[in-house]
Amino acid sequence: MRSSKSKKVIKAQPVLPFQDAASLSDPEREKIEEQVALLRLGHYLAEGKRLRPQEPILLLLHAFNRIVEDEPSIGFDEHRAASTLERLGARIDRAAPFECKSKYRVTVPEQLRRRAIEAATIKKSEIGEPQTE
Fold this sequence. Notes:
Helix content is about 45%, strand content about 10%. It is mainly alpha-helical. The chain has one domain (about 10-125). The strands form 2 sheets. A 3-stranded antiparallel β-sheet has the order 2-5-4, with helices on one face. A two-stranded antiparallel ribbon has the order 1-3. Helix 1 (about 25-45) packs across helix 3 (about 80-90) and helix 1 packs across helix 4 (about 110-125). The radius of gyration is 16 Å and the shape is globular. Mean pLDDT is about 75; it is low at about 10-20 and about 130-133.
């Protein structure tokens, strides 16, 4: 018998608006975006995925749009993900239009990687693992 220890992932549209965007000011919205992006980046890295320097940001969008049950339903487009990662401390470079489809390339420093994995680990321990008998 297999026990499911992973969280339920809800498939999302490429970009989802805030549920109550009108009630949040820009700084509040940015703070929530940063928290969600940090958690989703942490989940991505905790799965053993690797990020190369100058990674096209389009390769990360699937991870940024994986909405887990207990998280706000925030979706990221390429620009929103780039600006949020930059606020978190990643280096964002604009890609030349002839290089690839992605408009941005991201380099995530080691300190941000550790912070993201730690945030995801703490969140996972708060939720707790389902118990099997």
